[in-house]
Amino acid sequence: MNRNDLAFYFIMGTPNCIEEPLHVLEDALKAGITIFQLREKGEGALTGKTLEQFARQCQVLCKSYNVPFIVNDDVELALKLHADGVHVGQEDVSLTEIRETFKGRIVGVSVHTFEELDQAVRGGADYVGIGPIYETQSKSDAKAPAGLTFLQEARNLYRDFPLVAIGGITTKNAYETLLAGADGVAVISEICQSQDRQETVRACKIQMCL
Fold first, then answer.
1. d(CA 45, CA 13)
2. Which helix (H) or strand (E) holds 109?
């Protein structure tokens, strides 16, 4: 995995978008996101063949911009599509099994505690998504914000391990989040709910000196 790919991590599902999701994704790709994760969850989320078709369309767009395409949680779908990687939570199948299945591909893990972080590192994750850093509206089941302190302490513990900050990341706080120790920031609502997505991405990149 190229660590630089984690710098500007866009996460999206159809329920997150106020406009046509594929247009949202392409605008973000045009403006310079560095990695994309399809996270299809929430009310009205696509399932079955409809989800597979949409995922393939997202994958084609990502390939055209040479941006890694990651599938959230759905290991079976990620394998079927030959996705660049998979991102899993703490409730999903064992990291050891996933790491074995996805040899040579990206495996990310969501962590909320130091114990989970340690298990992810030892289990062979390529990076962790750490948070939520700030309050977020994108996940109905989100845990209480951990703040920058957790991120800073995680960086002190694992100085060379890739950390992606997630949860309430905006143009205004992206830079301070990087300063706290993140290799990259993951953004959902800031882009999905924007009326000018390309400008939002560009503004965020300027703030992060990308």
1. 8
2. strand 106-111
Give the residue numbers marked as catalytic.
39, 110, 139
- In angstroms, rounded to a whole number, what is the distance separating the alpha carbons of residues 114 and 1? 23
pTM: 0.95
| Cα–Cα distance, 51 to 130 (Å, whole number) | 27
Sorted by where each begins, the domain ranges of the chain are 3-207
Nearest to 129 by CA among 93, 85, 82, 172: 85
Pick the CATH number of 3-207 from 3.40.50.1240, 3.20.20.70, 3.40.30.10, 1.10.150.20: 3.20.20.70
Of 72, 70, 57, 2, residue with least CA distance to 26: 57
Residue 56 CA to residue 60 CA, distance in Å, equals 6
At 122-159, the pLDDT tens digits run 999 999 999 999 987 665 566 788 889 999 999 999 99
Beta strands 127-130 and 184-187 are unpaired
